[in-house]
Amino acid sequence: MTVKNIILKRLTIILSTSLGIGLLILLPIILTTNTTFYFYLLAFLKLFSHGLVSWTLNITFSVFFIQSLKSPLWKWLVSTICLFLYVSSLYLISKDFFIIRTPNFHYVRLLNVTSINTVIFAINMWLNTFDSKLQVEDENNQLKINRLQAELAHLKNQINPHFLFNALSSLKSLMIVNQQMAENYLIKLSEFLIASIGQTDDLVSLQDELSICNNYIDLQKIRFQDSLIYETEIDPDALQNSIPFFALQSLIENALKHNIVSLMNPLTIRVEVKGNQLTIINNTQAFLSEEASSKIGLHNLNERMKILTGQAIVIDKNQHYFKVQLPLLGSPQSTLI
């Protein structure tokens, strides 16, 4: 940051401290001397200018002499000497025009210069430390944001391969059983991908996510028909709230993957939204012998929820049902990561 920018940033502090120091030094002068208001005003303006010059010197040394003057003592000493040279030059130029004579005048002048610069030097050092701390915090926060964005991008890149793997596995099974059904499935799959692949936002409205899920359910109905029961109970006021893209779809996909779906054992998936809470629940009818699951879907969703909302998903399960709850956020337009 340049000297000009720092001065503009601290202008209120510079003016107020220079004003206060000028008044504090002028007060004993007023009490020990007897002259006109005009000379007191000129003396105050002189002291006020000392404060402004002291601020300028200290800020300049902080910016340009960080490496050569590492010790605070040296910075204080150099700035005090420069301020004293300025005051002495002002005294020589103005002569006795607006100098109020006091006992031990030269000692008082030296004491005033030292006092002014010491106070301003201390305040400037504290502000520099405070600004450095804020800068470090901002840099750390930016690094954290960049890391979270990289993690989120990595998680999003896992969604489509995971979904496509499951979809193509289903298509392969259908082709063995019923080629016509497989053809309809492929058509619906292409329509579903066209509707969802253009989505680049991390958060979408619940209404848009439900629309994608309806397309996905239509896709699965081709395969499972009446064996799959899909129910919803949605609070209309919650439709504009936001949810991570593919969050609900991945939960429905997870239910289909890990449960028996047949006419004898239909799978019921129910989605409920009340207030800012979304709940998806399905009856549990696990396979007698289930292949080891990578659990990419649930892990992926949980990590995305923690990054985007700061909250993890809540899982409640027993031998009869499997339930997942996740919070909804405000509208996508007003939600920031």
How would you describe what is shown here?
There is one protein chain. The chain has 337 residues and is of the alpha+beta class. It has two domains: 3-139, no CATH class; 178-334, Heat Shock Protein 90 (2-Layer Sandwich). The chain has nine helices and seven strands. The strands form two sheets. It has a five-stranded mixed β-sheet, covered by helices on one side. Helix 3 (37-64) crosses helix 5 (105-177). It is rod-shaped and about 110 Å long.
CATH fold description of the largest domain = Heat Shock Protein 90
Uncertain residue segments:
none
Strand portion, in percent?
5-15%
Please give the count of helices. 9
- The CATH C-level name of the largest domain is Alpha Beta
Tell me what the CATH architecture of the largest domain is.
2-Layer Sandwich
Total number of β-strand segments? 7
Order of helices and strands: HHHHHHEHEEHEEHEE
Query: What is the CA-atom radius of gyration, in angstroms?
Result: 36 Å
Mean of the pLDDT scores?
A: 79
Q: Give the total of domains.
A: 2
User: Strand order of the main beta sheet, please?
Assistant: 2-4-5-7-6
Query: What distance separates the N and C termini?
Result: 28 Å
| Secondary-structure class | alpha+beta
Which sheet architecture does the biggest sheet show? 5 strands, mixed
Share of helix among residues?
55-70%
| CATH homologous superfamily caption of the largest domain | Histidine kinase-like ATPase, C-terminal domain
What is the overall shape? rod-shaped
